[in-house]
Amino acid sequence: MEQIILHVDMDAFYASVEIRDDPSLRGKPLIIGAMPGERGVVATCSYEARKFGVRSAMNVQEAYRLCPNGVFMHPNMEKYRAVSGQLHRIWREYASALEAVAFDEAYLDVTEKAGDLDRAAAMGREIKERIRRELGLSCSVGVAYSKTAAKTASEEKKPDGFFVIPTPEAFVNLILDRDVRVLYTVGEMTAEKLYALGIRTVRDLRERASEVEGLLGKQGTWITRLARGIDDRPVTPYRPEDAKSIGREVTFQKDVEDFGLLKDVLLLLALCVEHRADSVGLRGKGVTLKLTYGDRKGITRSQLVEDADSAVAIYRTAAALLDRVERRPVRLVGVSIYHLSGEEMQLSLPGYFRDGTDGDAEERDRYLEALGEKYGLDFAGHVEQLYGAETLHRTVEYMRKHSGG
Ligand code: TTP
Ligand code: MG
User: How far apart are alpha carbons 385 and 379 in whole angstroms?
Assistant: First the structure.
């Protein structure tokens, strides 16, 4: 089937949103993620910060070493989520199918609505223009005959880029002498295997296709086809229930030995998970507890439950799992739900507004009250604020310091 696909990817997304909302940040190296002195990584940074070598996923201490005069900032996920919603509304006008890959990135199937490549290109330019005018943000757009080519095209002239790859031949010509990692699914591990055979570029890979297929099986067949420009994957609308799990976690500034405190943190995490699940109309049939110990050893423990749809149910299960793990200093704790389903979606009210006669809701309020007394904080009155990443983190740190941990 002939396809025409647009790939849209926002430029330095979190950073661009913050700069838009505070123009005094414009032109400065802005680094979003953990703060220097905290543990954690860089989520993203402005292009000015990239000149210093700062990158996504880099440890923040390393980023600080490279760019000590940068402006560091925590991410504001609620804000980016809202912008993402606005982007989706624009994208949906153009696409007959929309596949969101991340908050800031999507594939749009415009085969029917555009009809031909020229009109698709005009659509791509219009989308860029609208995002700039209506949201004050810049993005890069790729237009192509396949998903892979569209993604390659959007990266080609980033930031504020626009590029068209009309045919498989054009795609192959463009990537022929690039590293094999340009091919979708070739990550670090696959690349190492190929390098070991002396296969470094797409050209090498094309010349030794049968060897690669022998070495990598199914994946080998896929990438050798891709090296010839072939990719028939359709744009597949994302359904939230396809997500494998919904979870929240926090990393402590100092390892925590007090399991009572950990249990209290589980309640807050469970509230956040409930909120997130409610906002997409999902419930889970299982709960996972995740811990990373001070020595970086990580464990997960899971349990199936009747209905992991209320914060209290999630909390109780996670707390029971916590009772059964080894007691050593803990660096990170997380809670998630899995086996998600969208049943009764219309019936489920957002957790916070659930019927007050609901036993779970009453129990939750009791828990929150007890927690409030223990730490001297008004949890019950500020549940909504806890959903924000920064408030949650600050609250948990406050609890840690006031529990003597
Ligand atoms: P990307 O699109 O990978 O990065 P970007 O939009 O910041 O920059 P550009 O596309 O111009 O290269 O990711 C989108 C957002 O996702 C990014 O703004 C922050 C977040 N993110 C993380 O939190 N951690 C990560 O490791 C990455 C790669 C992204
Ligand atoms: Mg981006």
Answer: 9
Q: Whose structure tokens read 């007050």?
A: 356
How far is the C-alpha of 391 from the C-alpha of 79, rounded, in Å?
13
The residue among 77, 405, 358, 365 whose CA lies nearest residue 263 is 405
Ion ligand 2: protein residues whose beta carbon lies under 5 Å: 9-10, 13, 104
Q: Which domains does the chain have, with CATH numbers?
A: 14-75 (3.40.1170.60), 172-227 (1.10.150.20), 240-403 (3.30.1490.100)
| Average pLDDT taken over every residue of the chain | 91
pLDDT higher than threshold 90 for residue 359: no
CB 176 within 8 A of CB 228: no
Which residue has a Cα nearest atom 7 of ligand 1?
A: 12
- Could you tell me the two tokens for 167? 């045919």
Residues known to be catalytic? 105
Distance between Cα 208 and ligand 2 center (Å): 34
- Residue-wise pLDDT tens digits, 158-187: 999 999 999 999 999 999 999 999 998 898
Q: Which ligand is nearest to the CA of 43?
A: 1
pLDDT per residue as tens digits for the range 272-330: 999 888 877 778 889 999 999 999 999 999 999 887 879 999 999 999 999 999 999 99
Q: Could you tell me the pLDDT band of residue 241, with boundaries at 50, 70 and 90?
A: low
H/E stretch holding 336? strand 330-338
Ligand 1 pocket list (CB less than 6 A):
9-14, 43-44, 56-57, 102, 104-105, 158-159
Distance CA 44, CA 12 (A): 6
